Amino acid sequence: MSPIAGGCKRIVAVLADAGCKHRQIAVGEAGSGKGCHLAREGDHVGMNTFSEDSPLRRIGAGVLIALLVAPLPLDAQDRRAERLSVIGDVVSRQSGDVAAAIAAPVEAVLVVAGDTVRAGDSLATLNIDDRRADLEIARARIAVAEAQIGARQAALEVERASLRRLSDLKGSAAFNASRLEDSRAETARLAAEITVARAQFEEARSQAARMLVDIERSKVRAPYDAVVISREIDAGDFVTPGRRMFSLVNTRNLDVEADVPTAILRYLKPGDRIEAQTRDGQRLTVTVRALIPVENPLTRTRTVRFAVPPSQSLAVGQAIELNLPEGTEG
């Protein structure tokens, strides 16, 4: 006798019917060709479940109860009221162009498209022989200005001593008023020259610092870990500030970006884990990272960013199918 004849049994196997929004099971008579009775998950099946003419009321050796199971397993995490498939694209959190910071000829290019670089690695070098020459000139001017400041400072001290002696002679027969005025004028002139020499010193030092910055910028370095997507220069090219030299993309810090219907957003929150897969069947789990609060008025969707595990090997621009919840867990 069939197990169902012994009493009421709870349905635990379900079938996802493409034409029905509720998951169902089909119960019928083997080989009879008669229509099946449909029951929903969680229903209880007993002898009174079926009509008088139902084959299941004629429990016997020729009756087979077929429980057709849905393709997806029914565990606690997958028991959702509805699931919505949304296609997203893999995007990088860090990507962009590396541009020239100074005007100079390209001396050497050290990478090509496809190379993987780490932050700080050299991508190219620029010829800055003129800056090095200017740096030496600036350093010489610094030395001259320092010498001039020292010499005029010494002369100023001598003249101030002379001015004090002349001032002490006031009221005596040896006092010379004209000489006193000349000493005052010389003191003021020397003080002014010291001020000029100090300004020249600062100017030369600033020029030297600028040359050092240009020399450092002549070494074009990767700003972050990345893959070189394109190279726009060759040795011998002359670059100017702002010219694109390389395009980089960070493939270690990836997101999936998808436009999600606004009605679904209430079932998503940062930190939620979402099952996904690539077009070639590679499965992965992504995490809701950010819900962008800007809605497209034409499609009534908002952009959602899903963080990709660092261990996943994906390409920027690759399509990812996301299985999003359309309802709360049952």
What's a concise summary of this model?
The chain is of the alpha+beta class.
Verbal overview:
The protein has 330 residues and is an alpha+beta fold. The protein folds into four domains: 3-57, no CATH class; 83-93 and 253-325, Efflux pump adaptor protein, beta barrel domain (Elongation Factor Tu (Ef-tu), domain 3), CATH 2.40.30; 98-125 and 218-247, OB fold (Dihydrolipoamide Acetyltransferase, E2P); 129-217. Helices cover 25% and strands 30% of the residues. The chain is built from two helices and 18 strands. It has helices at 129-168, 177-217, and strands at residues 9-10, 24-27, 37-40, 44-45, 83-92, 95-99, 104-109, 116-117, 122-126, 219-221, 226-231, 238-239, 244-249, 254-261, 273-278, 283-296, 301-307, 319-325. Strands 5-14-17-16-15-18 form a six-stranded antiparallel β-barrel. The protein has a four-stranded antiparallel sheet with strand order 6-13-11-8, with no helix packed on it. It is elongated. The protein starts with 8 loop residues before the first strand and ends in a 5-residue tail after the last strand. Residues 1-51 and 55-81 have low confidence and may be disordered.
Give descriptors for this structure.
330 residues; alpha+beta; Elongation Factor Tu (Ef-tu), domain 3; OB fold (Dihydrolipoamide Acetyltransferase, E2P); 4 domains; six-stranded antiparallel β-barrel; four-stranded antiparallel β-sheet; 18 strands; 30% strand; disordered N terminus
